[in-house]
């Protein structure tokens, strides 16, 4: 037995069962696995990790559902490709296991599937054989999505060597139960399915009998929105905008508010007749016969109805507007109000003068520069975006699978929309194969397919029909009747009439309601995050007996692949590191039981897109600045971008190469505050050198002195300790003075007219205060406001990143830092980052900077063999031409602190992930030589203070994202 492994297990047992306070980096510490919202934890994350690293697996559960298979599906496919064998034992207990789930499991060639027909079988255990040990998870979680992601569950994860008693007891029990169980055959599934359906019918009848007459009441979102709408009117506001994700009940919300408002006449405006008709029926259902209802569209002109439902195409015509007085309607509702910047809508809004105007939209952000928010006087009554709606369980769960775009002649197609490539029969067959393989919740597919062109949609529909499916292709030329009939057939329960798929390009992006959709195929490049969410939203409405939505996205070598995580995770910061983190974490940050799954090729394509795309073009920055300005009705501050979860505002600083003030001055013609050159230069220095959120002390100190005029050093230390639970050293205090006075700052040749160092911060009799020169500058309101905004941005972002348990003497584990940041945080007197390179020892502290995947074109003399041996041990090499007796090596060996910083590759930029402090493993320091040369180097093995978190380790160690 490996002695290190034995010691690792002993250490894990010691911490897990004897003393929680001992410091241990063992990977085998017993753990309680639960599903938590704060901090984010899911049993699923650990289960996927164990499956991904095992040599064989054994699962014994009472229940298995299609949702439980869906959350593991991508990993199970990968295990099948690697021929990792598994045995799965399920139970017929209460006939809860779904037949469709058995079919999906049985389809895997590497899985041996059996079922226990004894009614007392109620196990929940997951066993994973590794190279030299077993990991066991036993507890309360069945193989269902809810059990693995959201339910209150307790599961104990333990590990044991192959010879351990507990491992052998568990394996013996599993194998005994497995031997006694029945092999799941197609014949068994067919007979069980009959029993399962009968049981469901009985359950449904019991539920229906128990139901009393349903009283329609506002849901949680609608209640909050109704209260806010009432507050607007009490404040004499006559306009309001509701921003609400598709499927969250906007139409019912408007009907509830109309009921509260009690208008004599109401107008509901939409862009399609079928939506107008649906809205009319909703209002009638809720309000009953207390009002008369009518359509004003096509050949219908219900002029005398109390509540009129009209298409914009009809009502906006001048001759139709003139049929009504300007004050005819007390209440007007504009559905899909992001369209209201169009001429027809503006004509309507200019003509009528209602007592209240309500706009409703899922996506108010127009891309044509029109201010929708201004149309509603910036009165946002309520906002609930997709992820919040998912959190509130207002929408169906979904399972997204991003799979690598299909092969043509064994080659991935390039970034192209050439339809001729798609028409290859092999590729079409693979689309059909994956549509079947990923399937749906019930096994009965009701699907939408989004294509790149109408030609493509028609062709694929034809080919699907030739393969036994029943499908239709719809385009902008399809009549209203054709669309309505197609939707009815897609939702039909009649097996003869029912359609399997509707193929389209974009006519179903919005304004269509097909709750029963349970599969979406995306066979087109992602050009817009907004359109992506709109198309995703088509299947997110809840429906009776619908458990979840399946999305299969065929991802090619498209430059816009970076938009996929932006859309799926709802992150609009355009921060590349944030997007990488979200992808590496998979479904961890996703609310509810929904999951996001990428195969390895697809994941690398998205990483590549993130690495190569420019997310901070002037056009994009101006667009996001303008959108937030529209929303607020004023010039936004940096902290506003944080509050409204918009673009990372530090990108404006980076783009301007100076400060946010400089960006605003450049792009906003309405901004007329001009700072003199000295103040502008100083803002630039503060923005780039101090308020970058990498260290909080300077920003916090500036804020307190601006607020109070002066602060005692002891008081400042106490405030930091109270806010962040750590003590500020005297060395850090001296460093703050140097930094704020820009003594640390190494001034390059530039156009700055302000001298550095500056006389800004003074220390006198144990207190801090500003110099008279700086106080004078602060009398300029514009300068002070922009400085405070920069300070508050820095403090807020630091707080968001800060976790006390991850804080290590100024640095936060797994945050990113530049060499300059590290010099500053280590309290060095000068910025030596330009000559720091791979490492430097200063005052017995050695920070090491590693680019994990070296570029092919770098010199042989710096192609060091730095790499992770495992998540706890890092192999590192000194500079070339050094020997064990070198002074430089002695300094490293004598260091009191060694810090490890790693980035995946140069394409990531100049920042490195802080992996933690490390110690040199005894006996690991050896004389070595660089590969392919005779240059001497010294080899070290570093022991990390704790194992690198799995998602970051996987991201760093996986292949380079650069095109080979």
UniProtKB/TrEMBL annotation:
Limits of the Helicase C-terminal domain: 427-602
Domain of life: Bacteria
Molecular-function GO term, any one: hydrolase activity
Protein keywords: Membrane, Transmembrane, Transmembrane helix
Transmembrane segments: 57-79
SUPFAM superfamilies attached to this UniProt entry: P-loop containing nucleoside triphosphate hydrolases (SSF52540), Phospholipase D/nuclease (SSF56024)
Positions of the Helicase ATP-binding domain: 231-382
InterPro entries reported in the protein's UniProt record: DUF3427, DUF8090, Helicase/UvrB_N, Helicase_ATP-bd, Helicase_C-like, Helicase_Restrict-Modif_Enz, P-loop_NTPase, PLD-like_dom
Entry GO CC: cytosol
Pfam family, one: PLDc_2
Protein name in the entry: Type I restriction enzyme EcoKI subunit R
Species per Swiss-Prot/TrEMBL record: Myroides odoratus
């Amino acid at each position: 037995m490996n002695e290190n492994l034995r010691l690792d297990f002993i250490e894990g047992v010691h911490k897990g069962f004897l003393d929680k306070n001992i410091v241990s980096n063992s990977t085998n510490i017993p753990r309680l696995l639960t599903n938590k919202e704060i901090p984010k934890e899911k049993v699923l994350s650990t289960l996927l990790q164990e499956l991904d690293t095992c040599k064989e697996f054994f699962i014994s559960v009472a229940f298995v559902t299609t949702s439980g298979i869906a959350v593991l599906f991508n990993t199970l496919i990968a295990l099948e490709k690697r021929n990792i064998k598994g045995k799965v034992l399920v139970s017929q207990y209460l006939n809860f296991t779904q037949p469709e789930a058995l079919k999906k499991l049985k389809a895997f060639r590497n899985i041996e599937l059996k079922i226990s027909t004894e009614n007392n079988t109620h196990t929940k255990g997951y066993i994973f054989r590794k190279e030299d040990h077993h990991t066991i998870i036993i507890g309360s979680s069945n193989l269902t999505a809810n059990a693995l992601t959201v339910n209150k569950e307790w599961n104990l994860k333990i590990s044991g060597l192959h010879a351990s008693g507990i491992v052998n007891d568990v394996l013996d029990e599993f194998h005994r139960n497995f031997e006694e169980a029945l092999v799941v055959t197609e014949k068994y599934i067919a007979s069980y399915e009959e029993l399962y359906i009968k049981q469901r019918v009985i359950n449904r009848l019991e539920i229906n009998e128990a139901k009393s007459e349903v009283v329609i009441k506002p849901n949680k979102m609608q209640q909050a929105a109704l209260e806010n709408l009432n507050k607007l009117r009490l404040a004499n506001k006559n306009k309001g905008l509701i921003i609400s994700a598709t499927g969250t009940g906007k139409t019912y919300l408007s009907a509830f508010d109309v009921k509260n408002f009690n208008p004599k006449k109401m107008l509901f405006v939409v862009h399609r007749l079928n939506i107008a008709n649906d809205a009319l029926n909703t209002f009638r259902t809720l309000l009953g016969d207390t009002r008369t209802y009518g359509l004003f569209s096509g050949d219908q002109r219900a002029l005398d109805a109390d509540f009129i439902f009209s298409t914009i195409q009809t009502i906006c015509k001048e001759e139709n507007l003139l049929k009504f007085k300007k004050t005819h309607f007390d209440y007007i509702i504009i559905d899909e109000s992001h369209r209201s910047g169009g001429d027809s809508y503006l004509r309507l809004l200019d003509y009528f003068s209602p007592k209240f105007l309500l706009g409703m939209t899922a996506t108010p952000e127009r891309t044509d520069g029109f201010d929708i928010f201004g149309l509603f006087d910036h009165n946002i009554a309520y906002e609930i975006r997709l992820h919040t709606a998912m959190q509130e369980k207002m929408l169906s769960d979904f399972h997204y699978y991003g799979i690598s775009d299909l092969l043509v002649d064994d080659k991935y197609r390039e970034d192209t929309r050439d339809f001729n490539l798609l028409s290859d029969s092999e590729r079409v067959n693979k689309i059909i194969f994956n549509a079947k393989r990923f399937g749906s919740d019930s096994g009965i597919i009701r699907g939408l397919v989004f294509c790149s062109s109408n030609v493509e949609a028609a062709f694929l529909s034809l080919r699907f029909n030739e393969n036994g499916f029943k499908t239709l292709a719809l385009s902008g030329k399809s009549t209203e009747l054709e669309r309505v009939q197609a939707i009815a057939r897609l939702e039909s329960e009649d097996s003869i009439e029912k359609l399997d798929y509707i193929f389209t390009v974009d006519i179903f992006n919005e304004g269509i309601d097909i709750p029963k959709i349970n599969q979406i195929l995306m066979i087109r490049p992602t050009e817009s995050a907004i359109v992506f969410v709109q198309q995703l939203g088509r299947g997110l409405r809840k429906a009776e007996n619908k458990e979840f939505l399946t999305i299969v996205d065929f991802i090619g070598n498209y430059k816009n692949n970076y938009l996929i995580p932006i859309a799926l995770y709802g992150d609009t910061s355009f921060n590349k590191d944030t997007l990488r983190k979200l992808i590496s974490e998979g479904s961890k940050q996703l609310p509810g039981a929904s999951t996001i799954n990428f195969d390895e090729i697809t994941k690398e394509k998205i990483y590549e897109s993130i690495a190569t795309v420019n997310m901070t073009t002037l056009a994009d920055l101006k667009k996001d600045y303008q959108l937030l300005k529209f929303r607020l009705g004023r010039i936004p501050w940096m902290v506003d971008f944080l509050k409204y979860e918009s673009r990372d505002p530090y990108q404006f600083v980076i783009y301007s190469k100076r400060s946010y003030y400089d960006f605003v001055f450049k792009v906003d013609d309405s901004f007329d505050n001009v700072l003199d050159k000295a103040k502008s230069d100083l803002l630039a220095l503060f923005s780039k050198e101090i308020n970058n959120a990498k260290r909080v002390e300077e920003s916090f100190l500036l804020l307190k002195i601006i607020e109070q005029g002066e602060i005692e050093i002891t008081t400042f230390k106490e405030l930091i300790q109270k806010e962040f639970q750590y003590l500020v050293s005297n060395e850090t205090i001296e460093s703050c003075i140097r930094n704020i006075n820009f003594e640390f700052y190494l001034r390059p040749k530039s156009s700055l007219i302000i001298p550095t160092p500056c006389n800004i911060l003074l220390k006198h009799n144990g207190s801090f205060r500003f110099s008279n020169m700086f106080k004078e500058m602060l009398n300029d309101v514009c300068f002070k406001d922009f400085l405070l905004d920069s300070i508050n941005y820095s403090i807020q972002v630091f707080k968001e990143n800060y976790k006390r348990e991850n804080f290590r003497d100024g640095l936060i584990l797994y945050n990113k830092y530049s060499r300059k940041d590290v010099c500053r945080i280590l309290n060095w007197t000068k910025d030596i980052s330009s000559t720091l390179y791979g490492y430097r020892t200063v005052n017995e502290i050695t920070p090491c900077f590693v680019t994990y995947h070296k570029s092919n074109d770098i010199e042989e003399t710096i192609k060091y063999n730095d790499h992770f041996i495992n998540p706890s041990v890092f192999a590192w090499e000194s500079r070339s031409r050094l020997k064990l007796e070198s002074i430089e090596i002695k300094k490293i060996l004598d260091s009191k602190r060694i810090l490890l910083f790693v980035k995946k590759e140069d394409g990531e930029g100049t920042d490195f992930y802080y992996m933690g402090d490390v110690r040199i493993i005894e006996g690991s320091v050896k004389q070595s030589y660089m590969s392919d040369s005779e240059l001497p180097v010294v080899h070290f093995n570093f022991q990390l203070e704790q194992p690198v978190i799995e998602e970051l380790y996987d991201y760093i160690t996986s292949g380079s994202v650069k095109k080979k």
